[in-house]
Design brief:
Layout (H helix, E strand, L loop, with lengths): L1 E9 L2 E7 L1 E2 L8 E10 L4 E9 L8 E5 L2 E5 L3 E6 L10 E4 L3 E4 L5 E5 L3 E6 L5 E6 L7 E3 L5 E6 L4 E6 L4 E6 L10 E9 L5 E8 L2 E8 L4 E8 L3 E7 L2 E6 L5 E5 L1
Antiparallel strand pairs: 1-2, 2-4, 3-4, 4-5, 6-7, 7-8, 8-9, 10-11, 11-12, 12-13, 14-15, 15-16, 16-17, 18-19, 19-20, 20-21, 22-23, 23-24
């Protein structure tokens, strides 16, 4: 299978999510036998913890690890795993969540979407923290590190809105006006925050590949990031490093911010 998500679980151990398509009868469409695995850097082995159909859904999926807990959210289902002691069996539990859009980085809040608005809900109490009206055209979303900012892609994947939960205000940035337009861009295909920062990575699908714009939201500055003729997929972004894959190159690549 193809690795679609990667996060450090413990020192020398990484959670991997595989998109694994199996072609059976040539007259039938391929079946997604996706997997969640744990890679051990010391032994260079992968332990498959969970298998199922269509675990990986899209580039908007979330793989979050906070302390003793892991959550993988594909927008329709949430897969959860807790750390266990030596010799104990690891188990992944699945929960359907058809209105779930994005879980916050510290797992305290999640966003629900309906036809009229986006609603931020506290995970434990169920209380509403904030509501953003007229957000029915939103697609991809990403949470900032301190659970204050949410970046939202909308307008047919052409704009990014920055939702500040402290004062429940939203500001829209449109490609070609507030956001510099990459050459021959088609749409925004993914968005995420760099861990522990207010820096946003905007991944554009272009006619001949992908282009990533780096946006420092705190200082409102934009920087040219990665560009390639092949597909670019950011697996992880923290500190001053981006871990990404390209379908026109062998292996994973790293790039300084």
């Amino acid at each position: 299978g193809v690795v679609k998500a990667c996060q450090e679980w413990d020192e020398g151990q990484y959670v991997l999510v595989f998109d694994d398509r199996i072609q059976g009868d040539v007259k039938e469409p391929p079946i997604n036998r996706d997997k969640i695995g744990l890679y051990d850097e010391t032994t260079e082995t992968i332990e498959i913890i969970y298998q199922g159909e269509n675990i990986w859904n899209s580039y908007d999926d979330q793989l979050l690890i906070n302390g003793q807990k892991m959550i993988y959210n594909n927008g329709a289902e949430k897969f959860m795993m807790d750390k266990v002691g030596a010799g104990e069996k690891r188990e992944v539990h699945m929960q359907a969540c058809h209105q779930l859009q994005a879980v916050s980085s510290k797992m305290n809040y999640y966003v629900e979407r309906d036809d009229e608005a986006l609603t931020v809900v506290h995970d434990l109490t169920g209380e509403t923290k904030a509501v953003l009206a007229q957000a029915d055209m939103s697609t991809y979303m990403a949470w900032g590190a301190d659970e204050r900012l949410i970046a939202i892609v909308g307008d047919n994947n052409s704009s990014v809105s920055l939702w500040d939960l402290e004062n429940n205000s939203s500001q829209k940035f449109r490609t070609g006006t507030e956001l510099a337009a990459p050459e021959k861009w088609v749409e925004i295909s993914d968005i995420q925050f760099v861990k522990g920062t207010d820096v946003v990575l905007i991944n554009y699908l272009c006619e001949r590949g992908n282009s990533i714009t780096i946006w420092d939201t705190q200082n409102d500055r934009f920087y040219e990031g990665l560009a390639a003729e092949g597909e670019i997929m950011v697996l992880d972004a923290s500190g001053e490093q981006i871990l990404y894959t390209r379908d026109d190159a062998d292996g994973d690549k790293r790039r300084s911010l």
